[in-house]
């Protein structure tokens, strides 16, 4: 089954471009909010997944906060109307101007990842006569069993404070008057399709809370990060991720203290399925051992297949002819500019419209201008 696209309208538009199904985005947002509200969980959308200004506005309209990893993202979130009090700022390398931007806007929290970073936040906050609210990003040392480029919570990853360093960090915090510890933050990786690693994370956080209690520390906020995966194989059958099962798991395995607030930072699961990259077939090339569909989109528009060997479902929206086997490639002068090998697609012709599905997350935002190409435009199902 193919997706439902306004293909007549696509014929008149210059390809490649991103197409967002805003109805699906809104349905996804209503579902995530309804499921999280059952347990009074707080959701901060991970802006890194897609910072398109209209997408951000729709997300903000649904009451989510924003998880930002740069000054640029903080600015994008503010421009889209997210209240500063719902913005968290994470990232292993925050520059001084970015910290100052967060302080000047009184953002909700800095997720800090090291002692030197805490010292700089303390110094910059002190200069402004402010106290910065911080959560410690702890590296929980849990294997998320996902692609090694998007695993973040293992001992050898650059992210977070290692468990064996926590006491030293807490000792340092006692000497920093302009930072206030309000929470703990975790993120174990992205595109997790199994729930076990999240359960292991809950167990780890429970242990940590006990460890902190021995030092008479209880934090007001626990942030479990993002990571819930989407179904790249079946974007139509599973257009919504299973938020119900996801939040239920945390509710079951993580007993929050009274008055403790629990936060999440989903990115991919919010925007992944609502976006497709729409492209045209430039040429069908018959090689001596293979047939290639050469598209006008390349890894400049969607880098995930080249960078992570990621799978995206590809559909020929213009043809119902019997399927043939193709490698689907882009026009960029690199062999890695390939969207998929040995794929069965309806017989392709020059000018056919091709949809590369599940591209709403880490698609448009990771586009580049390599080969002096233009950044892709975006169109929306309700405005096209
Ligand atoms: N919170 C933190 C601290 C993160 O590092 C991330 C993602 C998220 C939340 C959101 O995770 P999500 O719910 O989207 O899985 N470009 C890669 C994904 C990189 C994810 C980086 N961190 C990709 O295209 O697969």
State the main characteristics.
384 residues, Lyase, Ornithine Decarboxylase, Chain A, domain 1, TIM Barrel, 23% strand, binds ligand LLP
**CA-based shape:** elongated
The beta-strand count equals: 17
Number of domains: 2
Low-confidence stretches: none
- Rg on CA atoms, Å: 22 Å
Return the CATH class of the largest domain: Alpha Beta
The ligands found in this model are:
ligand LLP
CATH structural architecture of the largest domain: Alpha-Beta Barrel
CATH homologous superfamily of the largest domain?
Alanine racemase
Count of helix runs: 11
Mean pLDDT: 96
Distance between the termini: 23 Å
Explain what the structure shows.
With 384 residues, the chain is α/β, with parallel strands linked by helices. The chain has 2 domains: 7-16 and 273-380, Beta Barrel (Lyase, Ornithine Decarboxylase, Chain A, domain 1), CATH 2.40.37.10; 22-270, Alpha-Beta Barrel (TIM Barrel). It has helices spanning 7-11, 22-37, 53-61, 71-79, 96-104, 115-127, 166-173, 196-214, 243-253, 268-271, 304-308, and strands at residues 17-20, 42-46, 65-68, 87-89, 109-112, 132-139, 161-162, 179-185, 221-223, 261-264, 275-286, 291-295, 314-316, 323-329, 338-346, 353-356, 377-380. Helix 5 (96-104) packs across helix 6. It is elongated and about 70 Å long. Ligand LLP binds at residues 46, 48-49, 67, 90, 150, 152, 187, 190-191, 225-228, 265-269, 304, 308, 361-362.
Short description:
With 384 residues, this protein is α/β, with parallel strands linked by helices.
Q: Helices and strands in order, then pairings?
A:
Layout: H1 7-11, E1 17-20, H2 22-37, E2 42-46, H3 53-61, E3 65-68, H4 71-79, E4 87-89, H5 96-104, E5 109-112, H6 115-127, E6 132-139, E7 161-162, H7 166-173, E8 179-185, H8 196-214, E9 221-223, H9 243-253, E10 261-264, H10 268-271, E11 275-286, E12 291-295, H11 304-308, E13 314-316, E14 323-329, E15 338-346, E16 353-356, E17 377-380
Parallel strand pairs: 1-17, 2-3, 2-10, 3-4, 4-5, 5-6, 6-7, 6-8, 8-9, 9-10, 12-14
Antiparallel strand pairs: 1-11, 11-12, 11-16, 13-16, 14-15
Helix pairs in contact: 4-5, 5-6
This protein binds ligand LLP.
Ligand LLP binds at residues 46, 48-49, 67, 90, 150, 152, 187, 190-191, 225-228, 265-269, 304, 308, 361-362.
């Amino acid at each position: 089954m193919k997706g439902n696209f306004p293909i007549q309208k696509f014929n008149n538009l210059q390809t490649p471009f991103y197409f967002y199904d805003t109805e699906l985005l809104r349905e996804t947002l209503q579902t995530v909010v309804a499921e999280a509200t059952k347990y009074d969980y707080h959701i901060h959308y991970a802006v890194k997944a897609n910072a398109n200004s209209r997408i951000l506005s729709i997300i903000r309209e649904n009451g989510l906060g924003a998880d930002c990893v740069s000054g640029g993202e903080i600015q994008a979130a503010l421009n889209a109307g997210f209240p500063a009090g719902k913005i968290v700022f994470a990232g292993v390398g925050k520059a001084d101007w970015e910290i100052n931007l967060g302080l000047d806007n009184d953002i909700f929290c800095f997720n800090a990842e090291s002692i030197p970073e805490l010292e700089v936040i303390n110094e910059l906050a002190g200069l402004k006569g402010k106290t910065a609210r911080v959560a410690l990003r702890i590296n929980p040392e849990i294997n998320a069993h996902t692609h090694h480029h998007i695993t973040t919570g293992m001992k050898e990853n650059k992210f977070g404070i290692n468990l064996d360093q926590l006491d030293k960090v807490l000792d340092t915090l006692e000497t920093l008057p302009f930072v206030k510890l309000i929470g703990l933050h975790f993120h174990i990786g992205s595109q997790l399709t199994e729930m076990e690693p999240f359960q292991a994370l809950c167990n780890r956080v429970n242990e940590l809370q006990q460890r902190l209690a021995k030092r008479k520390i209880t934090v007001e906020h626990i942030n479990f990060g993002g990571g819930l995966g989407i179904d790249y194989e079946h974007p139509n059958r599973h257009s919504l991720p299973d938020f119900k099962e996801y939040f239920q798991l945390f509710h079951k395995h993580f007993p929050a203290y009274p008055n403790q607030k629990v936060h999440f930072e989903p990115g991919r699961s919010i925007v992944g399925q609502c976006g497709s990259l729409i492209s045209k077939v430039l040429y069908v090339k018959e090689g001596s051992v293979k047939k290639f569909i050469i598209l006008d989109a390349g890894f400049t528009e969607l880098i995930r297949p080249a960078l992570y060997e990621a799978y995206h479902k590809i559909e020929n929206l213009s043809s119902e002819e019997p399927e043939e086997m193709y490698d689907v490639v882009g026009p960029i002068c690199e062999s890695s500019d390939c969207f998929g090998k040995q794929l069965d697609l309806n017989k392709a012709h020059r000018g056919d419209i091709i949809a590369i599905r599940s591209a709403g997350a880490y698609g448009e935002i990771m586009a580049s201008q390599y080969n002096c190409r233009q950044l892709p435009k975006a169109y929306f199902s309700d405005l096209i």
